[in-house]
């Protein structure tokens, strides 16, 4: 079984994933691409810049956070992948897919902000039981958590939310974490799975994509 958690940063996906692991009788493995990237590449290679500013070449090769102003006047950040950053991300997804293909039960903790990400998972999701779960919370709570973390650009979650909502709109379940604990959210997900043995969202989603549309 695969539980695919998607949503912007600071909504509680990782906390919910850990609670799913604790509460479930299934030995899930937890794959979180942003956690792996944060451990594998130092933060100095993730440059933040405003508007038309240009990052240094060695930073642009990995990951950049570009600041902009949204339609409501809020400062937001959007992630831009450099060639090396995108290659590393693809390799990490491939490793996760290899585990899925070998039959491991997985909780995938993702932030899908680009159509080019979805085909990377295609062959490993299309014929499996996959529950697509959207994790979200109110903006004011999302930003409160973002500030509390202290390791994110303020406005990153809001910027990623714009991108996340453009890419996927089909889910088996949506969980609002604003007023619920991670334990309560995990229990809701597990209860849903127990009463809905045939998830449908991933097949609907994959009808729009194939491995042929991967963008390098």
Description:
The longest helix is centred in the middle third of the chain and has 19 residues, at 83-101. This protein has nine helices and eight strands. The chain has 216 residues and is of the alpha/beta class. A hairpin with a 5-residue loop joins β4 (63-69) and β5. The protein is globular, with a radius of gyration of 17 Å. A five-stranded parallel sheet has the order 2-6-1-7-8, sandwiched between helices. It has a three-stranded mixed sheet with strand order 3-4-5. The chain has a single domain (2-207), classed as 3-Layer(aba) Sandwich (Rossmann fold), CATH 3.40.50.300.
Number of domains: 1
Instruction: Tell me the series of helices and strands, N- to C-terminal.
Output: EHEHEHEEHEHEHHEHH
- Which consecutive residue ranges, at least 5 long each, have pLDDT under 50? 211-216
Biggest sheet: strand arrangement: 2-6-1-7-8
SSE order and pairing:
Layout: E1 2-6, H1 13-23, E2 29-32, H2 33-40, E3 46-50, H3 57-60, E4 63-69, E5 75-81, H4 83-101, E6 106-110, H5 118-125, E7 130-136, H6 139-149, H7 156-167, E8 173-176, H8 182-195, H9 201-206
């Amino acid at each position: 079984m695969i539980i695919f958690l998607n949503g912007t940063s600071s909504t509680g996906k990782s906390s919910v994933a850990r609670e799913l692991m604790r509460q479930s009788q299934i030995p899930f493995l937890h794959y979180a691409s942003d956690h792996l990237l944060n451990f594998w590449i130092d933060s100095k290679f993730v440059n933040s810049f405003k508007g038309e500013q240009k990052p240094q070449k060695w930073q642009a090769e990995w990951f950049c956070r570009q600041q902009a102003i949204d339609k409501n006047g809020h400062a937001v950040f959007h992630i831009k992948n450099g060639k090396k950053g995108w290659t590393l991300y693809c390799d990490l997804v491939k490793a996760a897919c290899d585990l899925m293909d070998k039959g491991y039960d997985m909780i995938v903790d993702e932030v899908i902000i680009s159509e080019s990400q979805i085909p990377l998972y295609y062959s490993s999701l299309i014929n499996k039981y996959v529950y697509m779960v959207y994790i979200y919370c109110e903006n004011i709570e999302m930003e409160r958590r973002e500030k509390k973390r202290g390791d994110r650009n303020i406005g990153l979650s809001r910027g990623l939310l714009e991108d996340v909502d453009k890419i996927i709109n089909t889910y088996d379940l949506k969980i609002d974490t604003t007023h619920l604990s991670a334990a309560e959210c995990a229990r809701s997900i597990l209860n849903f799975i127990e009463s809905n043995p045939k998830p449908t969202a991933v097949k609907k989603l994959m009808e729009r994509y194939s491995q042929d549309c991967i963008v390098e």
